[in-house]
């Protein structure tokens, strides 16, 4: 099964457009785990267990493991996901971006070492920095396109007079990913949730690509507006998939020992909001 | 001492503009180490020992360690560099690019875990994806600006009509790094060696920033043209530093047991070519 197939199946089986982002910060763990970097796996595994039937994907953010020398815990966590949430694809959030031989090493890191089904990438170095990932048939690769952080405008919102139609840089990335770069149908795009009009614009330019949309929850994006702007359906079939990520609002829904139950409640609420927007 | 001070001192003490890039691929190691990922540290340490007095910096590329679960070997390698090459700064080639809280984790990875003096970054997500690194006073951060891989043009060479003067994207990055983004004088730029005219253009826009220039050696960049385009001197003082990287041409100068001696000879030759271009 390809990543896209897995994503469609998990979206359908769990009636969910929600991705839980695993950005584990030991300083925010409940008291019995707090500031203990050796318990990152355990914290995340509890979140996975509590939300496995509510999500279309999990998205571990590698920086939070690397800062704590905890790559081995990430390896174990992905293995745990395979048992606790079979069929739910794993998107490694790494935002790698490098050329040929080095990109090949990062592809080994993401797909072989960590066993991810998809990875996030930066498009700044161009097609040959993306192409090595596409040789892994069936794996997915989400390119940064339009991010909603304060500096997102600095480069992404600049207008390109040297490209036909004078698109903004992020529009150009969306077109490349929908078209010439998407050799085997493996590409998706990362688009922030803060500005639904920009999600809609990316969807217009990339009608069939899966959109990974962070920023719902703690970062303030609106779930309903996000779904309406990004999801495309034909009847019951999803023709333009979305993967709506929430991290902190779920991971840290409670600072107490009930953190996993609270995470489930937060995930359930967001899952249902997203689902209601879909059918509403 | 700041990264810039270390770089200036090592450049002077070793009469060198050469950076040796450590991209260790066990498949290319000599027979007694070949395909043995547990010997990555040993291979690299031998290269460090053989070139310590010939370089202005070392640049380990993290992907080659991560693909082999060898982060611990990278930690030991940096510790070895501190003993074998005291005063030579270490640039971690990681090309990270992420927002706020996540960038902070990557900064911990680079500067605390691996003990690097500088790191390479992608500017695609804008200023707030760079700023967390600048809070580490004295550390350096090289932003991807103009890369000479085939896809380097895809985004970097597009013209921005929405920015005053209608610069190309890479020219815009150079201006931002020389000016408003460079809060504490910590920024540098990555510029490929293949097109000296573009190095000269970046130097024009960023007269004082250190330029990290990969691509001399195996990738075909011309050493003399690179120095003339990038280095800026006032008398004996370097006012526009360059760090000219060579990786494969040095690491794999010989496939035999004489690999370290051959690496030294290759590094010596390139060091001398770069130095001759400086004074020529």
From TrEMBL, chains A, B:
Record: active site: 95
Q: What is its EC number?
A: 4.1.1.23
Q: List the catalysed reactions.
A: orotidine 5'-phosphate + H(+) = UMP + CO2
Which one Pfam family would you cite for this protein?
OMPdecase
Which Gene3D superfamilies does this entry report, sorted A to Z?
Answer: Aldolase class I
Q: Which CDD domains does the UniProt record give?
A: OMP_decarboxylase_like
Q: Which PROSITE patterns match?
A: OMPDECASE
Keyword Lyase appears in the UniProt entry: yes
Question: GO biological process: any one?
Answer: 'de novo' UMP biosynthetic process
Q: Which GO terms describe its molecular function?
A: orotidine-5'-phosphate decarboxylase activity
From the UniProt record, give the pathway where this protein acts: Pyrimidine metabolism; UMP biosynthesis via de novo pathway; UMP from orotate: step 2/2
Q: Where in the numbering of this chain does the Orotidine 5'-phosphate decarboxylase domain appear?
A: 17-263
Q: Does the keyword Cytoplasm apply?
A: no
- Which key words are in the record? Decarboxylase, Lyase, Pyrimidine biosynthesis
* SMART domains cross-referenced by the UniProt entry: OMPdecase
Query: Where exactly are the transmembrane stretches of this chain?
Result: none
Family named by the database record: Belongs to the OMP decarboxylase family. Type 2 subfamily.
Record's protein name = Orotidine 5'-phosphate decarboxylase
